[in-house]
Amino acid sequence: MQREMFEFFTTLVEKISGISYKEGKEYLIESRLNELALTLGYRNVEELYNVVKSRSDYKLINEIVDSLTTNETYFFRDQHPFDTLKNYIFPELFKKREKEKKISIWSAACSTGQEPYSIALLLHEYFQSYLKTYQIDIYATDISKKSIEKAKTGVYNQIEVNRGLPVVFLVKYFKQEGAHWKINDNLKNMVRFEILNLLEVSQKVKTKFDIIFCRYVLIYFSQETKQKVFRDLWNVLNPGGYLILGATEIAPVSFPDMEKKILGKTVCYYKKD
């Protein structure tokens, strides 16, 4: 891929999504955009480049951003954050929120939905009695329209359900439909999916949350964007709530009301009451 094209596409993606592609990612960019170009009826990525440069096509620009921001995900990814939810965070929050009887959870950058559905599965499997008396909201967002559309269906192929999902959960909470598996409606209905750009959290997210999962997202941002996104997430976290990043990530900024806690094998950022 020519340097001029690489810089054009990476600048475009960073401006819209905040995701920063460094040099060395030319092959990834070119392969994903070539695939998109052919899908849209163009001969190659060069023709796609010329079209985007010559006219401002919002739909086409969104397709490009979509193709370059779809990230890796699978059920119960890393496992230990879900063990921490089960063993520490949920028991604590159910006690703390006994009066309000309401817990709000946000899976930010949820990709195709495996993370929020894993949280819903966990609640059904281990906290069934609380589901009858508490209102539990799971909000799940991603910048990718394609990912959110798939997440909303709750339908996964055999490879996807084999990744991280215990067989006992598959049999108990999914229904087989041909070569695919569909998550049961009672779990699917627990999750509300929306398209959301994390650069727009301060303008668009008006709810406060008790738990925020934002894993393996900040690593794609510049330091300045990391700080902005983290600050915005912190502002919508309830006092007494937890923010969980990916296993290899650390908070890019700290606040007076922030306490770093290690619960089990998981590093959590706790917002002091």
UniProtKB/TrEMBL annotation:
Molecular function (Gene Ontology), one example: protein-glutamate O-methyltransferase activity
PROSITE patterns: CHER
Source species, domain of life: Bacteria
Catalytic activity of the protein: L-glutamyl-[protein] + S-adenosyl-L-methionine = [protein]-L-glutamate 5-O-methyl ester + S-adenosyl-L-homocysteine
EC number: 2.1.1.80
Methyltransferase as UniProt keyword: yes
CheR-type methyltransferase domain residues: 1-273
Annotated GO biological process: methylation
Keywords: Methyltransferase, S-adenosyl-L-methionine, Transferase
SMART domains: MeTrc
Protein name (database record): protein-glutamate O-methyltransferase
Species assigned in the record: Thermodesulfobacterium commune
